[in-house]
Design goal:
The protein has about 180 residues and is of the alpha+beta class. The chain folds into 2 domains: about 100 residues, Topoisomerase I, Chain A, domain 4 (Orthogonal Bundle); about 70 residues, 2-Layer Sandwich (Gyrase A, domain 2). It contains 4 helices and 6 strands, in the order H-E-E-E-E-H-E-E-H-H. Helix 3 packs antiparallel against helix 4.
Length: about 180
Amino acid sequence: MNDIENKMNLSVSHFEKELNTLRTSRANPSMLDNIFVEAYGAKTPLNQLGNISIQDANTITIQIWDISLIKLIENAITESNLGINPQTDGQLIRLPIPKLSEERRKEIIKIASEFAENAKVTIRNIRRDFIENSKNEKKTSNLSEDELKRQINEIQKTTDNHINEIDKILETKKIDILKV
């Protein structure tokens, strides 16, 4: 049971990380986690090319370590589909976070819902695998029918708890996105 709990917790934490990459109206450094820059002959995460910090609620700043990469970083941010236009000032790139339109908020909610559904599918797959393992264990060992039913009920209860947790996290994120 610890194994199934750990795997499902990993799915929930992965879902939370995916949600953090979605843009809301407030500046958040994790919005830039999925941006990679073609630097030094490889795709490098943006957070490894400079210091990312929050200047105020609507501005992210990136202090670039290698000034020769500024154009590449600007292009990567522009092409990232975040809807942010970088402003360069020497080695400092400012990212003003514009207010979201109602249409864009609804798009972001759809994306968040897709992330939630993917996490639920992963959790259901984990449930299926563990139930199959329990049934196989019954065949190969002396696991009783009652013990098998108890295990399946425990697995289902754990699955339901994790799916409810995903729903709560999604609702919280929806409220955050719709907040003007």
